[in-house]
Amino acid sequence: MIQERTIPSLPSIAPVSREEGLKLYEDMVLGRYFEDKCAEMYYRGKMFGFVHLYNGQEAVSTGVIQSMRPGEDYVCSTYRDHVHALSAGVPARNVMAELFGKATGCSRGRGGSMHLFSAEHRLLGGYAFIGEGIPVALGAAFQSKYRREALGDASADQVTAAFFGDGTTNNGQFFECLNMAALWNLPILFVVENNKWAIGMAHERATSQPEIYKKASVFGMPGIEVDGMDVLAVRTVAQEAVARARAGEGPTLIECLTYRFRGHSLADPDELRSKTEKETWLARDPLKKLANHLVAERLVEESELEAIRKRIQAEIEEAVKFAQESPEPDASELYRFVFAEDA
């Protein structure tokens, strides 16, 4: 019998200002509307290959990445990377163009859905195989510490966030990298997006310790469980972990209990999850939760949120138009970017 975990609650959530609340809401709406448009384009035959959407998990990306320094701190993703890229500041038009395989895409049309990358925005990539990104994130965190402590670069106080799913925590990279991060006291956040399912395998059936945050204890690092459907709760935990990392106090493992509203990918008929389970989580939509909070606290008017939704929808439509009109990668550049090039 699979045991249902209760959603954790924080005794005190960091207060949010009107400006912060609007920024968080806008970022989550951007992620949701972008993914909805991806589904439309995929089923219309405009996108190809595997496309894994993020609907339902927006509070995790927004809560963590918006607690970091855009363009300075590092973000490392998975194959479910569109929204991480958007939260990191990669323009929607360049992400959409990448999904269309166009030269104007953030990976020059070479990466597609699972391999978004942007050096400018410190997005270290999406990775098709689970766990691949964690050692890359570890390396980014190591170079920050090395530059600061060994090379005397006082400006090297960057923090890295590595995102991955619950299924990844059964892989060797997870344990090896947590061990090294603890040994070297690295400025990194290990962010587990526990959406309960590793493709078609229920999380509770795949691991001897379903409470992932507890696995941090054996490495002597803080492990925190948080409601991944509440952006303010995620933000509170992330702000504390980022501050610790930047102050030289080492890594943190954050387990965000969340849920994907769509199938594993757009090719997944999503027949394994029960209707009751899906409806229970849909009722906890993170966008609606934040919107209700902002209105209830009289920080914003509903009309302001509606204006944001309309503006984001127009931005997404413009991104599609940009992607459709962008050129295909030129065949003469087939072998470019195979090896490093001079700047």
Keywords:
Rossmann fold; single chain; alpha/beta; five-stranded parallel sheet; 343 residues; globular
Could you explain how this protein is built, in words?
The protein has 343 residues and is of the alpha/beta class. The protein has a single domain, classed as 3-Layer(aba) Sandwich (Rossmann fold). Helix content is 40%, strand content 9%. It contains ten helices and seven strands. The strands form two sheets. The protein has a five-stranded parallel β-sheet with strand order 1-2-3-7-6, with helices on both faces. A two-stranded antiparallel sheet has the order 4-5. Strand 2, helix 6 and strand 3 form a beta-alpha-beta unit. The termini are far apart.
**Main beta-sheet strand count, sense and barrel state:** 5 strands, parallel
Helix content: 25-40%
According to CATH, the fold-level topology is Rossmann fold
The ordered H/E elements are HHEHHHEHEEEEHEHHH
Examine the secondary-structure arrangement and name the CATH architecture.
3-Layer(aba) Sandwich
Strand order of the largest sheet: 1-2-3-7-6
Total strand segments: 7
DSSP helical segment count = 10
- How confident overall, as mean pLDDT? 95
Q: What's the CATH H-level homologous superfamily?
A: Thiamin diphosphate (ThDP)-binding fold, Pyr/PP domains
